[in-house]
Amino acid sequence: MALITLDDLLGCLQVRELRPGVWTAPSLEMDYPRVFGGQLLAQAVALGAATTEGKTVKSLSCLFPREARRDELLSFEVEETQTGRTFAVRRIRAGQQGKTVFVALLSMHVPEPETPPDLEHQDPAPEAAGPGEAVNVDLNMIPWTTRVVDGTDLRDRAAGPADYAFWTRVADRRLADDANTHQALLAHATDLTVVGTVLRPVEGISQADAGSKLHTAVTSHTMWFHRPFRIDDWCLVHQHSPTLGGGRGFGQGHAFDAGGALVASFAQECMIRPTVAS
């Protein structure tokens, strides 16, 4: 069962301006002391939308310098770095008790008219079983349908390839048509499974050991949106980790719509350290 509800997550996107340049938003209600990083990614998208007109997120690059506490108010300082007719830049700093917990740099873009076919290309979507053949799995922080390709279990401690893929779709409702809601929810979903993907090639260790044998935390996350999409239609999230070393893991991913169009890409660095017995 998911630890959060979609209604609560959508509520977290209702950002509110306290005074010029300073905003706030609620945190997800759950039995966990830390703010989930995916929530902050989604809220960064919402803040970009709230502080620009007629633009959507082209890219966001985020840092998580320290843990954010769920039971403390989040304050977002938004700097309107640049605003043009086509592009805009926003810098976001989230703080609690005077300390920085999150930093994001957003590039916003007015959607372009449809480009000629001879000015487009993309790598083909990976070969993967469709959502009807994938295994329905509860990915506790994603409160909508997720189906894992080949039923890969990130808690399995047997070594495997550093790859992971899942189909995802909000199936219980039709969401609003604004692109920012769909971008925010996909950004939230990309934060959850990279650490587990990084750990797959390590024999005897898995995501299940986070908090016991391992101390893990996301340190940075970058995302690019390439084409319009809807998260209430099927999307395939496919990710791979090329390296783990020096206490840091790295993963990359792409999201495709059901027709195979590449709609987004992301990259994440995470801290992965063995815990020290006290």
What would your notes on this structure say?
This protein has 278 residues and is mostly beta strands. The protein has one domain: Porin (Beta Barrel), CATH 2.40.160.210. It has helices spanning 6-12, 37-50, 179-189, 194-199, and strands spanning 16-19, 22-24, 56-63, 75-83, 87-96, 99-109, 135-136, 145-148, 163-169, 214-225, 235-245, 248-257, 262-274. Strands 1-2-4-5-6-3-10-13-12-11-9-8-7 form a 13-stranded antiparallel β-sheet. Strand 11 and strand 12 (248-257) form a beta hairpin. The model has no long low-confidence stretch (mean pLDDT 96).
Write the layout of secondary structure elements.
Layout: H1 6-12, E1 16-19, E2 22-24, H2 37-50, E3 56-63, E4 75-83, E5 87-96, E6 99-109, E7 135-136, E8 145-148, E9 163-169, H3 179-189, H4 194-199, E10 214-225, E11 235-245, E12 248-257, E13 262-274
Antiparallel strand pairs: 1-2, 2-4, 3-6, 3-10, 4-5, 5-6, 7-8, 8-9, 9-11, 10-13, 11-12, 12-13
Helix pairs in contact: 2-3
